[in-house]
């Protein structure tokens, strides 16, 4: 089975670590970038020194484009549009695309540009952070939730041709997917993954923006219960207005559990602001804000945080894009 991984950030490196026995090909902007190292929960260190190929033209020794069984896309939301333009000329129709990101909206963008490919969307509660240059630390082992995008979106948005024309060998498809996912220590497959994605969006929607603006560790949010409660309240109102199925008490508890479990972590958005990089504000608060606007819902807390982070992103954009090597 041929696996490609796009993105050498925390999540991309995590999947390279989990799938290391499959010898994944790393698709990068610059093949001269040093190999990443990841440190596991038992403190073992693994050098992710796999084959690298330029993302815009990954060719085999026969000068033919690689045909991957699975192409895992783990780049940040603001990188996706450029990535799609690089992938479209060479990605084969039989390659399955798997997108795992913090926010939402990226899977829909992929579906619009790759209508003939089978696309899976996922989210993970694994906690990984950059502990040094080119080094990542796994601080908590979580769960990978994954499912087919065609069961999540309306057929008018995405109905891949293999499904419409009933040309998919589902037994073979399940076998391939099982072969991939068995390397992750805890996987939950969903026929409709939307519940898991919206749960993760709510968790990220509370933790990431507040820690970014306040510049604090996740656990320090316990010192700001009013801010956490106000943001939860607005996100839950957005979900209710958009007919998202959830249990308010359970989702609130899930957010609190993640704050507790990752109390010593700096969120990715917090680190982005600290190091003057672009954040995933648009795919987290931006996505929630658009959901609110579609229902004419007043969300002052979401709006204020979104605008503050948007201004920070604007001031960081040129430096971040110039230095980005993921």
Automatic annotation (TrEMBL):
<comment type="pathway">
    <text>Cofactor biosynthesis; (R)-pantothenate biosynthesis; (R)-pantoate from 3-methyl-2-oxobutanoate: step 2/2.</text>
</comment>
<comment type="similarity">
    <text>Belongs to the ketopantoate reductase family.</text>
</comment>
<dbReference type="Pfam" id="PF08546">
    <property type="entry name" value="ApbA_C"/>
</dbReference>
<dbReference type="InterPro" id="IPR050838">
    <property type="entry name" value="Ketopantoate_reductase"/>
</dbReference>
<dbReference type="Pfam" id="PF02558">
    <property type="entry name" value="ApbA"/>
</dbReference>
<comment type="function">
    <text>Catalyzes the NADPH-dependent reduction of ketopantoate into pantoic acid.</text>
</comment>
<protein>
    <recommendedName>
        <fullName>2-dehydropantoate 2-reductase</fullName>
        <ecNumber>1.1.1.169</ecNumber>
    </recommendedName>
</protein>
<dbReference type="InterPro" id="IPR013752">
    <property type="entry name" value="KPA_reductase"/>
</dbReference>
<dbReference type="InterPro" id="IPR013328">
    <property type="entry name" value="6PGD_dom2"/>
</dbReference>
<feature type="domain" description="Ketopantoate reductase N-terminal">
    <location>
        <begin position="3"/>
        <end position="149"/>
    </location>
</feature>
<dbReference type="GO" id="GO:0008677">
    <property type="term" value="F:2-dehydropantoate 2-reductase activity"/>
</dbReference>
<dbReference type="InterPro" id="IPR036291">
    <property type="entry name" value="NAD(P)-bd_dom_sf"/>
</dbReference>
<dbReference type="InterPro" id="IPR013332">
    <property type="entry name" value="KPR_N"/>
</dbReference>
<dbReference type="InterPro" id="IPR008927">
    <property type="entry name" value="6-PGluconate_DH-like_C_sf"/>
</dbReference>
<dbReference type="GO" id="GO:0050661">
    <property type="term" value="F:NADP binding"/>
</dbReference>
<keyword id="KW-0521">NADP</keyword>
<keyword id="KW-0560">Oxidoreductase</keyword>
<keyword id="KW-0566">Pantothenate biosynthesis</keyword>
<dbReference type="InterPro" id="IPR003710">
    <property type="entry name" value="ApbA"/>
</dbReference>
<dbReference type="GO" id="GO:0005737">
    <property type="term" value="C:cytoplasm"/>
</dbReference>
<feature type="domain" description="Ketopantoate reductase C-terminal">
    <location>
        <begin position="193"/>
        <end position="311"/>
    </location>
</feature>
<dbReference type="GO" id="GO:0015940">
    <property type="term" value="P:pantothenate biosynthetic process"/>
</dbReference>
């Amino acid at each position: 089975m041929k696996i490609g991984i796009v993105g050498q950030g925390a999540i991309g490196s995590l999947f390279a670590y989990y799938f290391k026995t499959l010898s994944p090909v790393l698709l990068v902007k610059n093949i001269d970038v040093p190999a990443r190292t990841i440190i596991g929960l038992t403190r073992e260190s693994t050098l992710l020194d796999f084959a690298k190929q330029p993302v815009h033209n990954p060719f085999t020794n026969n000068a033919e484009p690689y045909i991957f069984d699975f192409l895992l896309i783990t780049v940040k939301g603001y990188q996706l549009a450029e990535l799609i333009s690089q992938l479209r000329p060479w990605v084969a129709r039989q390659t399955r695309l798997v997108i795992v990101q913090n926010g939402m909206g990226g899977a829909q963008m992929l579906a619009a540009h790759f209508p003939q490919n089978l696309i899976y969307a996922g989210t993970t509660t694994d906690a990984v952070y950059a502990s040094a240059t080119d080094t990542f630390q796994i601080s908590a082992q979580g769960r990978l939730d994954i499912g087919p995008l065609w069961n999540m979106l309306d057929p008018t948005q995405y109905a891949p041709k293999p499904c419409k024309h009933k040309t998919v060998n589902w037994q073979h498809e399940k076998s391939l997917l099982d072969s991939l996912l068995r390397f992750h220590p805890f996987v939950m497959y969903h026929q409709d993954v939307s519940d898991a994605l919206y749960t993760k969006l709510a968790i990220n929607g509370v933790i990431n923006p507040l820690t970014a603006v306040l510049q604090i560790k996740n656990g320090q949010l316990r010192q700001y219960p009013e801010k956490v409660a106000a943001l939860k309240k607005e996100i839950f109102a957005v979900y209710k207005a958009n007919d998202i199925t959830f249990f308010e008490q359970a989702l609130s508890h899930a957010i609190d559990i993640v704050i507790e479990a990752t109390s010593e972590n700096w969120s990715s958005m917090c680190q982005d602001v600290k190091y003057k990089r672009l954040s995933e504000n648009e795919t987290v608060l931006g996505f929630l804000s658009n959901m609110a606007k579609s229902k004419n819902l007043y969300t002052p807390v979401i709006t204020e945080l979104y605008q503050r982070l948007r201004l920070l992103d604007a001031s960081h954009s040129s430096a971040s894009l110039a230095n980005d090597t993921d």
